[in-house]
Amino acid sequence: MTGRVIVITSGKGGVGKTTTSANIGTALAKSGYKVVLIDTDLGLRNLDLLLGLENRIVYTIVDVIEERCKLKQALVKDKKNPNLQLLAAAQTRDKTAVNAEQLKEICETLKEENDFVLVDCPAGIEQGFQNAVAGASEAIVVTTPEMSAIRDADRIIGLLATKEEITSVKLLLNRVRPSLIKSNEMMSVDDVVGILEIPLVGIIPEDTGIITSTNKGEPIVNDENALAGKAYRNVAQRILGEEIPFLDLDEPKGFMAKLKNAISKLKVKV
Amino acid sequence: MSLFSDLYNTLAKFFRTSDEQIDASKSVATNRLKLVLMQDRTNLTPKILEQMRSELIDLLSRYVELDKDLLDLNFEQEGNQVALMLSIPVIRAKDEDEIEAAIKEHEKAMIAISQQNDENESDENSEIEESNDSSEIINAEEDDSTDPSMDISSKSMKNKDKKEVSAPEEIGNNPFKSDNMDLSEILETSLEN
Ligand SMILES: Nc1ncnc2c1ncn2[C@@H]1O[C@H](COP(=O)(O)OP(=O)(O)OP(=O)(O)O)[C@@H](O)[C@H]1O
Ligand SMILES: [Mg+2]
After folding, report:
1. Is the pLDDT score of B37 beyond 60?
2. Has residue B62 been placed in a domain?
3. How many domains does chain B have?
């Protein structure tokens, strides 16, 4: 088996890389695929928390590299789904403990026995970024519809374009707020895609459920009712090659909504 | 809320949607972003821009007398394109004899430079060559209007012109494009409170 290695990256910090990694990984595993998530954010590990696995980590990626354990020993199985495994980042070691070549080797080994290897990249464009992309052949660039995040995403897209091994770069737009887009206070999906000029793989709405799901250590894809959960399940299906239409984030419900909808359509045409 | 008050509010909202409102923070952000990305994506450092500026002064001075201190070269947003705008206050146009003399002088200078090049192929000379390349970007349009300042803009440097890096095939074509969430639909349907 030769799995796909996908790096989740962004440039700017805090835009949702780790949330995205946890959710896509969980969704793919739920669909029956074997998935390994690698946290490459040395010193600032978080993926274990989002998955609720923080108490199970014995060995980390640095232990693997420094040969204190075998790669298999360092993989922590998810509580619910044994298809999903985590290779945690070291929390104490300095960032120079890992280099790109070593990470590439780990990815090569893992993809032999897994369908997907998802690499959660740290923020920035330094060594941590170079490490995270080293073994990947696909990238998902996460951004929010804010200027600074988009600018950093553009920078990352430029850097990814110089990497020959990376053959696919896709955009995931996170924390979209339809009400702000509607009032022209936030850039729309089309605006962002128009500026960054890479294909879209997902649109994730701002969802307070993400905070509570983080608190519980359970990715929001497991919540059947959450809109962000549905959006992430759709991303997973698109990664699997299905053509899933993008969510209408604000579905009209009753008669009133339809009426308003009709009225606003009139306005749009004027 | 009754149907009519709801309707009224909705309609009132529409009528308040003036042009200024549409031109709200989103388009400011989009435009500023396009501009800054344009600069991020090119290799035009302030130093190179300065070099470009001085070469342009040399070139244009052969034909018109300019106010060199007020010459302004900048990136600007023009519609949905980023343009390199050159604004030059012209003091007066030169007459034919003056232009001819200036061109001759320039040619002499160029010959002197190329002879120097032949003698010693130093790194500095290749630097001069590079800068010649960058000035080719400018498309001088002849403008015989009497306006004291004329604008020369180059449209050849669009957003799309990313650095020298060549993107892999897949970047840029969007298989999901057709499925893209219809934004007007979001706009239309998010009226619910
Ligand atoms: N769609 C969303 N709706 C609401 N909150 C969100 C959403 N996406 C992410 N967040 C919140 O934003 C914060 C940052 O998310 P996350 O840790 O995934 O970002 P990151 O890019 O991995 O950050 P870092 O660069 O520090 O690694 C978290 O508190 C998370 O709960
Ligand atoms: Mg993170």
Report:
1. yes
2. no
3. 2
